Amino acid sequence: MLALELKNISKTFGTFKANNHINLAITDGEVHAILGENGAGKSTLMKTIYGEHHPDPGGEIFLRGKKIEIDSPSHAIRMGIGMVHQHFRLVRPFTILQNVILGIEPRNFLGMIDYKKARAKAEAIALECRFDLNFDQKIESVSVGTQQRVEIFKTLYRNAEIIILDEPTAVLTPQEIKDFYVIIKNLKAQGKTIIIITHKLHEIKEIADRCTIIRKGEYIETVDVATTSEEELASKMVGRKVDLKVSKSSTVNSDEVVFKIRNINVLNVKNLPAVTDFSFDLKKGEITGLAGIDGNGQSELVEALTGLRKIQSGHVLINDQDITNLSPKAIYHKKLGAIPEDRQRVGLVMDFKVKENFVLQTIDKKPFSNYGFIINRELNRFSNELIARFDIRPTDNEIQASALSGGNQQKIILAREIVHNPDVLIAFQPTRGLDVGAIEYVHRELLKLRDAGKAILLISYELDEIINLSDRIGVIHKGHLWADLGDSAIKNNPKLKEDIGLYMAGGKPV
Amino acid sequence: MRKFLISILSIVLSFLVGALVLKLSGISPLEAYSVMWEGAFSQPNYIAYIIIRSTPLILTGLSVAFAFRTGLFNIGSEGQFIIGALSAAYFGFIFHFSPWIQIPLVMILATFVASLYGGLSGYLKARFGVHEVLSTIMLNWIALYISNYAVFVEGLRRPDMETTEFIQPSTSITILPDWKVSDAGVEWLSHHPFWNSFLRPPVNAGIFIALLAVVVVWIILNKTTFGFKLKAVGFSPTASEYAGISTKLKVTQSMMIAGALSGLAGATHVMGVSKNIAALATHEGYGFDGIAVSLIGANNPIGVLFSGFFLGALKYSGQKIQSTLEAPSEVIGIMIGAIIFFVAIPKIFDFIGDFKAGKKHD
Predict the structure, then answer these.
(1) CA distance A323 to B249
(2) Which pLDDT band, with edges at 50, 70 and 90, does B362 fall under?
(3) Pair (A329, A193) in one structural domain
(4) What is the mean pLDDT of chain B?
(5) Residues on chain B bordering chain A, Cβ-to-Cβ distance under 8 angstroms
(6) Which residues in chain B have their CB less than 8 angstroms from residue A11's CB?
(7) How does pLDDT run across B308-346, given as a tens digit for each residue?
(8) Could B243 and A373 be called an inter-chain contact, meaning their C-beta atoms sit closer than 8 Å?
(9) For testing the chain B interface, which of A349, A350, A373 should be mutated: the one with the most B CBs within 10 Å?
(10) Among A151, A186, B59, B291, which has the highest number of CB atoms less than 10 A from its own CB?
(11) Which residues contact B305 (CB under 8 A, 6 or more apart)?
(12) How far is it, in rounded angstroms, from Cα A75 to Cα A53?
């Protein structure tokens, strides 16, 4: 039996076709993944199902065989369709219970909110679907993972039978992701139909039954997940063959240390120790990975190394020159490049044109300016050169950075840092939010830099990324260097991933 | 381009709002608007008055727009205007140089003092994190009371008056003040009715300074590395800091330039029109109008030039409906308010785009 069927759905914005004649059939009680690159039209399609968009004329939607039109999200909810957005829509100072009942509060005869009744219903659902929630906690005091569970719970409270999840694991830690998988499996056991929008392949393999692939607004095909490999999924998504694991050449052992971090201490915004007595060396021609769970001092460490945060004590040396507490500009010109964690807030000025973003750090230098006047001709020449060399799309250098996809935005930053020819590159979450094709590209570029003899510090929350690329792996836990695994410890260790996972959680392998 | 379209649509809508208010007051809107049109453009001296009125508005509008491009909301244009005017009145009175030295010297000094005054808000923000809206509002009042105090300081005060002494004639930037009243001038003007009318008001060189300022600000914002960094800070302080731009320095510099532009407005006003300053009961509003000018001009120097002229013309011609039709001239204030209201919520114009594309849902 089909829970939901979409026939010939198109959606046009202006002249842009976000969805082009898409067909989709969701079976009752299945977990169905919608796979596609960023900007492929997944979210547009889901918003159509949820009533946030109206499809172009000609498209049809069937709910359990009956043709329907969905006017608005509230209409969708009444028909048993719930959606959890990537960015949560919760009232932070309210309790979980208040958030759950918001908008459909049960009332007593005085017209006041009947919390007793609300709680009874909520607890019954929680028991049935095995949700572990403390309803009296305020949203602002609970973890992101719990917030997501509240969002899912809200759809259940509204009697949703079909639940749409938009990029559900983008904001979760590895442990929270595991909990999330359990929730999805429980919901499936309860007979709910689940649609997950994602571009993460292992996630699909983990929980989905079937998967529909969308590329550039077009329906490609629907496959059975159990019989399709991750590589096949990736190729169908991108439209060409993709290497999920870029191969790297063996280490060029140079032993030349170019970057030294010596016993540094850094405070966080609340003036509490964030990085404690941290020492680390980077060698030429090596990628050094720094693994760790989000929030263990990585942000503060990178800010301190790039000159944005004061180092309380200790030293940082690049090519034996002390750069401790120099200005960001001075550090940059000592040949330290960085790919910041948050490309939209820190890496780029989103309202600036592409060509302006290329010269953010170097606008004062010749040939880009002369006596304080910008030489536009040089900006154009330089930006067109980089756009061609790094295959940035669209190729228009006058377009605002905000109009580019995440992968192309990251390419701007990569291009900018690479042509500056740094001796040391700090890459902080360089593939965050990117799709498979773009991840492959970034990984290749990092390896190219490594082979060119640069020292690279790769800080990532994605353990797979660290293990794939690194020649040496450190683990940061609560601001301490918790483990430092050299070449021999990485190679020939079948339990490497489990070991690092243990270190990340603050333990030691036995 | 879209922003300018919104400004123009807002202006059109504001005339409808004004018409409604006039109608409710029992006055024919058509008649009132034709009185305003005639009152603005039917005689050369009206146009001269509009230019005089617009000069400080263009400059204070530039001041607000400039700060805005660095992400700062300069509410302090009013206070910076007062400081500029006071400085011009003081230096213009105590110095006795020939005009070629006196005029630039007084103007530069007045502008400089006002730039320090504006820069103070920037420094307070950069150093102590004081929000510029708070500091500039307070500094507006401080400037008003400093000015009122200075007016009564013996030596600067004009005996028995609540004003300062007049500036030296060599400080004046009024065009041909002596020639206009000389025998030859009177004789020539009597044969040239256009100029006779045009030169009757205190026409002064301030408008050329305002035009020059528009060009300079445009060049700074669009052609220099300094403007590049200011805009980067305005769009994204975090990305700018990361890229090695000192946001604190840029904030201070931006407020200094904003202060200088407002101060220049005050200086040209004293040197070209009023020739002295008087004790004030409250703010005159040149700086506050600058906020409106900047908003309507989409925070763009060229836009500010046009919106400055527009607001100057509206304010000048608005007085005329009071005297001729006994219509409330407050309707002008309502119209300006309406323009800003519409400019501030551009979403209301989206329906036009929707309508044209024919994709409106029912």
Answers:
(1) 22
(2) very low
(3) no
(4) 91
(5) 223-226, 228-229, 231-232, 235-236, 238-246, 357, 361
(6) none
(7) 999 999 999 988 888 888 888 788 889 888 988 888 887
(8) no
(9) A349
(10) B59
(11) B58, B210, B211, B214, B297
(12) 12
Residue written as tokens 């009145």?
B89
Say what the pLDDT of residue A41 is.
84
Report how far apart the first and last C-alpha atoms of chain B are (Å, whole number).
Answer: 30
**Helix or strand (DSSP H, E) at A274:** strand A273-283
What DSSP string describes B294-325?
Answer: HHHTTT-HHHHHHHHHHHHHHHHHHHHHHHHH
Record: contact A363-B226, CB cut-off 8 A = no
* Same structural domain, A85 and A224: yes
* Across B64-84, average pLDDT: 95
Q: What's the gap in Å between the CA of A265 and the closest CA on chain B?
A: 20
Structural domain boundaries, residue A305: 260-346+422-504
Question: How far is it, in rounded angstroms, from Cα A490 to Cα A467?
Answer: 8
Q: Residue A401: inside a domain, yes or no?
A: no
Instruction: State the DSSP H helix or E strand holding residue A389, giving kind and residue range, or none if neither.
Output: helix A376-389
The H-assigned helical ranges of chain B are: 2-24, 29-41, 44-69, 77-94, 99-128, 132-151, 177-181, 183-191, 193-198, 206-223, 225-235, 237-242, 247-269, 286-296, 301-325, 330-344, 350-357
A34 domain-assigned:
yes
Question: Looking up tokens 């339990």, which residue turns up?
Answer: A495
| Binary contact (B238, A345; C-beta < 8 A) | yes
Q: How far apart are CA A29 and CA B92, in angstroms?
A: 86
The β-bridge partners of B178 are none
Per-residue confidence (pLDDT) for residue B352, from 0 to 100? 61
Task: Name every chain A residue with its beta carbon within 8 A of the beta carbon of B244.
Answer: 327-330, 332, 361
Domain co-membership, A230 together with A266: no
Helix (H) or strand (E) holding A446: helix A436-451
Residue B141 has φ and ψ, to the nearest 5°, of -70, -40
Q: How confident is the model at residue B360 (pLDDT cuts 50, 70, 90)?
A: very low
- Encoded tokens for B310: 């527009």
For residue B193, cis peptide bond before it (omega within 30 degrees of 0): no
| pLDDT of A495 | 82
ipTM, 2 decimals?
0.84
Same domain, A209 and A111: yes
Whether the per-residue pLDDT at A33 is higher than 60: the answer is yes
pLDDT given for residue B319 in this prediction? 86
Separation CA A395–CA B286 (nearest Å): 46
The answer to whether residues A73 and A83 touch, using CB atoms and an 8 Å cutoff, is: yes
**Token pair belonging to A196:** 């997950």
A102 is a domain residue: yes
Three-state DSSP class for residue B3: helix
**CATH number of domain containing A83:** 3.40.50.300
- Whether residues A351 and B236 touch (CB distance < 8 A) is answered with yes
